[in-house]
Amino acid sequence: MLVSASAIGYYGDRGDEVLTEESTAGAGFLPEVCREWEEAAEPARAAGIRTVLLRFGLILSAEGGALAKMLPPFKLGVGGNVGSGRQFYSWVSLADVIDVVHSALANEQLSGAVNVVAPGAVTNAEFTKTLGRVLSRPTFLPAPAFGLRLAFGEMADALLLASARVEPERLRAAGYTFKHPQLEGALRHALDAPK
Predict the structure, then answer these.
(1) How is residue 160 annotated by DSSP?
(2) d(Cα 37, Cα 118) in Å, to the nearest integer?
(3) Count of other CB atoms within 10 angstroms of residue 21
(4) How many CB atoms lie within 10 A of CB 100?
(5) What's the pLDDT tens digit per position in 65-117?
(6) What does pTM read for this prediction?
């Protein structure tokens, strides 16, 4: 069996469209990279090897990744919405990521593309408000889209301002039960924050 790691960047910026594993790839640099990465696993599938293409969303960990980069301004009380705040963030707890990888290895039902995201993506505004509540900090200082584009160029659009409302249909069909299906609980777990 082969497990390949990809990302929900596969779908590109799709607004509020609900995306499942059956949705087509988006347009642009990140979707192209993800599509080509997944196509590189095609020879294994063609040879009859069970192949699972895991498409990871925003993985919640205080030790690294996007959440770790968000924490300093939020802890200082200067966090806020990114751009309009209307873009969807499809997230997943690190505990669920580990469990899903194990399931991909063990569960013969899983094959093909598998979205590794918790059910119910949230907008950036909802994510921001929830993170502020978990940290007991205000969230009133937005990061305007034009400033992000000046600082990060086109990567701001692809990584910070893009919207992907992704659902884990294949995991649901395989009977997977999320350890952290709600954002607040997942953030409290990731940050070891009391309720």
Answers:
(1) I
(2) 23
(3) 18
(4) 26
(5) 889 989 999 999 999 999 999 999 999 999 999 999 999 999 998 999 999 99
(6) 0.94
Are 132 and 184 contacting, i.e. CB atoms less than 8 angstroms apart?
no
The reply to whether CATH 3.40.50.300 applies to domain 2-191 is no
**43 phi, psi to nearest 5 deg:** -60, -35
In whole angstroms, give the CA distance from residue 89 to residue 112: 23
Domain ranges in the chain?
2-191
CA 136 to chain centre: 24
CB 128 within 8 A of CB 187: no
CA distances from 192 to 14, 62, 74, 181 (A): 33, 9, 16, 17
Bridge-based pairing state of the strands 91-93 and 2-7: unpaired
Reduced to 3 states, what is the DSSP secondary structure of residue 89? Answer: strand
The Cα 132–Cα 79 span in angstroms is 8
Reported as a single tens digit per residue, the pLDDT across 41-62 is 999 999 999 999 999 999 999 9
Strands 91-93 and 58-60: parallel
Q: Cite the DSSP H helix spans in 50-123.
A: 65-75, 94-106
Burial grade of 39 (CB within 10 A; 0-12, 13-18, 19 or more):
exposed
Whether the CA torsion 153, 159, 160, 161 is positive or negative: it is positive
Q: How many residues does the chain have?
A: 195
